[in-house]
Amino acid sequence: MGLAMGKLMLGKIIVETPKHEVLHTGDGYEIRKYPPCVAAEVTYDPKEMKGDRDGGFQVLANYIGAFGKPQNTKPEAIAMTAPVITSSGGGEAEPIAMTAPVITSSEPEPVAMTVPVITAEGREEKASKVTMQFLLPSKYTKAEEAPRPTDERVVLREVGERKYAVVTFGGLAGDKVVAEKAEGLKAALEKDGHAVTGPFVLSRYNPPWTLPPLRTNEVMFPVK
């Protein structure tokens, strides 16, 4: 097991997390502004991962070298970050423009893992697809600066500045609990006059094997 995985195993988060500015503190939630970053992303059908909705975790972990030799063209190990982000509630993931090409290098390079890992779930014709993201360490400011994945399923994307309303909670992030948190957060935002601009995402700061009492999760709605 890689060192990065071990650091998150007991729930203590000592890896890089996304920098943000708290713009407002409401009743049980915060509104945060996040700066631009680079994300590694994989889209897949859970059926192809033996029914595992988090099956993309292994693919992305291999890219950064969390379990062994990094699967990128340098190869370069990439530090692990937190959290892992999953969109839920039947909504679509926030669209992220790819503003730069991914450039091939001659040697693989390990990339540090950041948290969160972001997973987006579509609906209707996209219902079977899941998109999971790792946000790369802040030293990578452009997609072409990060090592190119050797697994063609992994895509590097530049994520622009964004603003989210966030509620934090522990324990298991099952569908029922997440839906309740999202419903409560949306109601609080509407009460306070904040405009929600898209579906929520789920941020998970720990690997799937972390004991429930030690987990940190966040439901996040994009807002104006």
From TrEMBL:
InterPro entries linked to this entry: Reg_factor_effector_dom_sf, SOUL_heme-bd
Alphabetical list of PANTHER family matching this protein: HEME-BINDING PROTEIN-RELATED, SOUL HEME-BINDING FAMILY PROTEIN
Protein family: Belongs to the HEBP family.
Protein name per UniProt: SOUL heme-binding protein
